[in-house]
């Protein structure tokens, strides 16, 4: 840090940061009309707006968020990034995202704190081992890094792991070394700032209440809590609320929404070097830069739009964590939270066109949305701009649920399914 920057930083700290400007423009009222309106101000929506403005020269773009930027699932997840999915279509999509993650801080000129510390997925029984070995071979064929570790190698990679405990013995694990974590809210802030600098209007506290259509069925605009907005194209990126938004246009989505919970511990010194996931016991864990253990659970069993979730889910998750990592048994939990995830029957996302001209949708990410953020926004922006699917997004069309060309990633989507 230069002397000038250090002095300015100290001065602003003493003055209550009154000299810092806003990171992005957030008009109180939207314009009367836009070329493209994105519904949803999470990571995917903001990334879509950014890539539309930067790569496709779309003129007037707005992002509408019913709450505040990053207040939905983007700020309520456990930040895991990986691309070790089974089918080549999925591997291509998620690895496209990982490649963008690797240079995202430089791209946005904003530190998103991407940390490729490795993601280790544990096998506790013969079925797990067979499934993960299949993933390793499939990933290698697709050009995605993934390797099999025996139990001792798992413990060497993650020393806190107890591989010999009785309830969940560790037979081995699949390791993607390029996987890791990033700072979730920094991702939203970085995309918001970069999109705003390119002229995108980011309208917060603006809830969409209706979608207006012409006589031929095409989208013409939106009704919102801040008035009517005319729009040439509309992209829906509303995560767990996608079904509700799409119903305004008369489109029924093959989605179910579930609460997904997580929690963090008191902060401690660096003790956990990687990300560890266990499908069998529905738990995963990493350590944040603040020292907190970030622990994720599985989804609740019943569909809901609640962000609370069942207490027994957290109890089961912590029991599993204490079995796998006995050294954490005496740690105290600071807080828990929940998000709303939308899932499809094949546990793969939907990206593309809809039966309504001018209306596009990006949804169904289940528990895997955060890891896909840059890749999702990049391919969705191209799809909206060209009104045709990006090649990477093409297999994830809404039409696959009528043709039967499903992409069944239940085994790769980890703890939630």
Blueprint (SSEs and pairs):
Layout: H1 3-14, E1 33-39, H2 43-55, E2 61-64, E3 80-81, H3 88-102, H4 104-108, E4 119-123, H5 126-141, E5 147-150, H6 151-157, E6 172-176, E7 180-181, H7 184-197, E8 201-203, E9 208-213, E10 219-224, E11 227-236, H8 242-247, E12 256-265, E13 275-278, E14 283-287, E15 293-299, H9 311-324, E16 333-343, E17 350-353, E18 359-363, H10 373-386, H11 400-403
Parallel strand pairs: 1-2, 1-11, 2-8, 4-13, 11-18
Antiparallel strand pairs: 3-7, 4-6, 5-6, 9-10, 10-11, 12-15, 12-16, 13-14, 14-15, 17-18
What do you see in this structure?
The protein has eleven helices and 18 strands. It is of the alpha/beta class. The protein folds into two domains: 22-77 and 185-254 and 346-416, FAD/NAD(P)-binding domain (3-Layer(bba) Sandwich), CATH 3.50.50.60; 115-179 and 257-343, 2-Layer Sandwich (D-Amino Acid Oxidase, Chain A, domain 2), CATH 3.30.9. Strand 14 and strand 15 form a beta hairpin.
């Amino acid at each position: 840090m230069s002397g000038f920057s250090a002095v300015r930083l100290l001065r602003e700290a003493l003055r209550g940061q009154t000299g810092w400007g806003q990171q992005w423009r957030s008009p109180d009222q939207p314009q009367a009309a836009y070329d493209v309106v994105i519904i949803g101000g999470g990571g995917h929506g903001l990334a879509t707006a950014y890539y539309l403005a930067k790569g496709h020269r779309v003129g007037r773009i707005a992002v509408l968020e019913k709450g505040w930027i990053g207040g939905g699932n983007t700020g309520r997840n456990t930040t895991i990034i990986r691309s070790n999915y089974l089918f080549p279509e999925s591997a291509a999509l998620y690895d496209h995202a990982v490649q963008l993650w690797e240079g995202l801080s430089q791209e946005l000129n904003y530190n998103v704190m991407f940390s490729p510390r490795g993601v280790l997925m544990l096998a506790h029984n013969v079925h797990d081992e067979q499934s993960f070995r299949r993933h390793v071979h499939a990933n290698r064929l697709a050009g995605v890094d993934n390797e099999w570790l025996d139990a001792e190698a798992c413990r060497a990679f993650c020393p806190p792991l107890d591989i010999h405990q009785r309830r969940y013995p560790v037979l081995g694990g699949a390791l993607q070394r390029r996987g890791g974590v990033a700072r979730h809210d920094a991702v939203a802030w970085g995309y918001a700032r970069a999109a705003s600098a390119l002229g995108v209007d980011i309208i917060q506290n603006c809830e969409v209440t209706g979608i207006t259509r012409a006589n031929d069925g095409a989208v013409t605009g939106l009704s919102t809590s801040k008035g009517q907005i005319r729009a040439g194209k509309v992209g829906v990126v509303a995560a767990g609320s996608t079904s509700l938004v799409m119903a305004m246009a008369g489109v029924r989505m093959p989605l179910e929404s579930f609460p997904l919970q997580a929690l963090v511990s008191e902060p401690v010194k660096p003790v956990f070097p990687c990300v560890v996931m266990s499908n069998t016991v529905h738990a995963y864990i990493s350590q944040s830069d603040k020292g907190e253990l970030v622990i994720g659970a599985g989804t609740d069993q019943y569909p809901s739009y609640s962000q609370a979730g069942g207490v027994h889910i957290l109890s089961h998750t912590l029991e599993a964590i204490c079995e796998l990592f006995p050294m954490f048994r005496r740690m105290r939990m600071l807080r828990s939270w929940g998000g709303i995830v939308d899932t499809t029957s094949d546990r793969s996302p939907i990206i593309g066109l809809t039966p309504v001209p001018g209306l596009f949708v990006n949804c169904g990410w289940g528990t895997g949305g955060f890891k896909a953020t840059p890749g999702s926004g990049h391919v969705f922006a191209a799809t909206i701009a060209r009104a045709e699917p990006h090649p990477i997004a093409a297999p994830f069309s809404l039409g696959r649920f009528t043709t039967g060309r499903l992409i069944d990633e239940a085994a790769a989507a980890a703890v939630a399914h």
